[in-house]
Amino acid sequence: MTCNPSWPEIEEHLLVTDELQNRPDLISRVFRAKVEEMKIDILKRNIFGKVAAFVYTIEFQKHGLPHAHFLIILNNEYKLLTPEAYDKFVCAELPESDKNDYLYSLVTKHMMHGPCGSLNPKCPCMKNREYCKFKYPKEFTNHTYKGKNGYPIYRRRNNETKLNDDQRKAYDIILDRIFKNKCGAFFIDGPGGTGKTFLYRALLATVRSKGFVALATATSGVAASILSDGRTAHSHFKFPVDIDEHFSCNISKQSSLASLIRDAKLIVWDEVSMAKKQLIEAFDLLLKDLMDTKTLFGGKVVVFGGDFRQTLPVVRSEKKKDFLRESLLCFEIWNQLEKLRLSINMRARTDPAFSDYLMRIESGKEKLNYQGKIDIPDCFIVPFISEKESLKMLFRITYPDLYTSTCDMSSTNSRVILTTKNDFVDEINDMLITQFFGETRTYVAFDETIETTDQSQYEDFLHTLHPTGLPPYKLTVKINCPVILLWNLNPCEGLCNGTRLICCNFERHVISAKIASGDSKKMHVFIPRIPLLSSQDEKLPIPFKRTQFPIRLCFAN
């Protein structure tokens, strides 16, 4: 066991001006307490079995931190003599991140060797820059067995994620077009959980590994953040935020961005089902202009992806035909795309019945009752007693430990109440934040009209407005409460519109938070208070600017 300078018991007792190397008393005291606790685990709690004898020594490593070695001899009936016995206490495989995220983060942070070998020939463990003296990477084996010298060879299964049949077929077709310098426009059609993102990552990695340029983009910031070097379509291709029938991309043919797009062998656009057809049309015209050709998408290999069963383009209408009319489905280019379908649900493999049920609903094949509606099984429904009681029951089921100081944040982050309208979202969030454990902090925004002469006349009225995309006038938060980012602050660091965050600390002009999802999960960030303009799509009677933290609560969404 090695002393970890990041142990909370050490960090909490360091003063602001303290340096770790100047507090050997604190280090020794905390390490001693940890060693004594480990001795109790081994000798009294018998975590390995009854101990016949033991000896341990404490040494100091080169960087000055203490390190303990234990030699434990177990009673005969508890000795590890078989591969099955070894597997009970020793595992040389990574924990599953979706089942035990905390253990996974500890192992990957503290117990990973390298990289060495061809990935890093200058690693200190490399002898003559040829091989690792510790013989890493170890060979894969499906079972633990005894080695020739008496040391066990631990189980290391080759459980890396691989493309399934549907993904492999699409992967081969697309790469064939790329490496044969042929044009191609594809649409990857697959419900949520069928591995679209994994396919995109495989395509991007393969093309880039050959030294070619591959661009990753998405309609939403969250979708872009989970792709390698991903950016939103508006950022990549300079689309304006407010679009109409006559807008165009603001890219000069002599610019470095235009040169990058011309060099791209592959362009991946995820969540295209959320994009309005005007964006796709402008994208097509942009590529044709940059490549000086009338071929579809300038002769580039373009891979679109999305699921039209989920969110369609945002349109101010309540009619289904209006949503469809604005989507790619009703654009002439749609018929020119090659459709590649993914049907194997990788996310719901443990519950195929539920996956099939969702597919029947998505495809319109689920049976309807006499009212023309779908009957949802009782196991998925919160019974209606009264509006107040049923909501309380829903809250308890969704957030069972919300009301305690020991609330499990990893569990809270993976849950959300989905509603149909923003008014319901605000109502549920307001109810849950009052029940959330902790002290309340309220931030009041500053609203100002674009025309300064109207400020005094309409200021109170502006406080009552809650436009889509703007934070509330009064933002009420608590430490550890979940919030959602409403603005693309820094997509490269995972701060995109739609990123979920956990509040850590509150200051006057900044909120300290921790990213709760995506590749930047657990990264500490600071959210500033910034001025935000209302969208032209809102058609507000008075255009105005709101200065507030660009977040809102996300117990419900």
Automatic annotation (TrEMBL):
Any single biological process term in GO: DNA repair
Pfam families cross-referenced by the UniProt entry: Helitron_like_N (PF14214), PIF1 (PF05970), Pif1_2B_dom (PF21530)
Keywords assigned: ATP-binding, DNA damage, DNA recombination, DNA repair, Helicase, Hydrolase, Nucleotide-binding
Cofactor(s) required for function per UniProt: Mg(2+)
Residue ranges constituting the DNA helicase Pif1-like DEAD-box helicase domain according to the UniProt record: 162-366
Entry EC no(s): 5.6.2.3
Catalytic activity as recorded in UniProt: ATP + H2O = ADP + phosphate + H(+)
Transmembrane feature ranges: none
SUPFAM superfamilies assigned to the protein according to its UniProt record, in alphabetical order: P-loop containing nucleoside triphosphate hydrolases (SSF52540)
One MF term in the entry's GO annotations: ATP hydrolysis activity
Residue ranges of domain Helitron helicase-like in the record: 1-72
Span of domain DNA helicase Pif1-like 2B: 460-505
Enzyme class: isomerase
UniProt xrefs under PANTHER family: ATP-DEPENDENT DNA HELICASE, PTHR10492
Similarity comment: family membership: Belongs to the helicase family.
Stated name of the protein: ATP-dependent DNA helicase
Source organism per UniProt: Nicotiana sylvestris (Wood tobacco)
Organism taxonomic ancestry: Eukaryota, Viridiplantae, Streptophyta, Embryophyta, Tracheophyta
